[in-house]
Amino acid sequence: MKGLIQRVSSAAVDVDGQRIGEIGQGILLLLGVERIDNEASADKLLQKVLNYRIFSDAEGKMNLNLQQVGGGLLVVSQFTLVADTRKGLRPGFSSGATPAEGERLYNYFLEQARAIHPVVACGSFGANMQVSLTNDGPVTFMLEG
Known about the structure:
The chain is an alpha/beta fold. It has one domain (2-144): D-tyrosyl-tRNA(Tyr) deacylase (D-tyrosyl-trna(Tyr) Deacylase, Chain: A, 3-Layer(bba) Sandwich), CATH 3.50.80.10. It is built from three helices and eight strands, in the order βββαββαβαββ. It has helices at residues 39-51, 66-69, 99-116, and strands at 2-15, 18-23, 26-32, 55-56, 62-64, 72-77, 120-122, 129-144. The strands form two sheets. Strands 1, 2, 3, 6, 7 and 8 form a six-stranded mixed β-sheet that branches. It has a two-stranded antiparallel ribbon with strand order 4-5. A hairpin with a 2-residue loop joins strand 1 and strand 2 (18-23). Helix 1 packs across helix 3.
């Protein structure tokens, strides 16, 4: 499971012109599910996302995590994160989970996140989404679970 996290001052996701999820300060997580992923990899990635220290402390150093700053988490499915781009000029998606399994693990990830974090918003799996954000820093990291 791969997650691209961005520290944001705000982020939102729209589908068909309607806002379906938004947060203020926090993390925008673009989530990609691979064939080899399962609940254990989702749990591992979630713990990493919630505890990764990317927010500034009083001295301006990245020492605080999402939970410590009380930030929101916006989770958006993005299967293109698992693309194989090593060869040629067209991405390959053979390592990606099937749509059904990807959606199942995406929903599992959201359930677990909502059980332990107070502010969790999301996109719509498989939908054409418009994601807007104000990247704070910019601060962006690729995490794997």
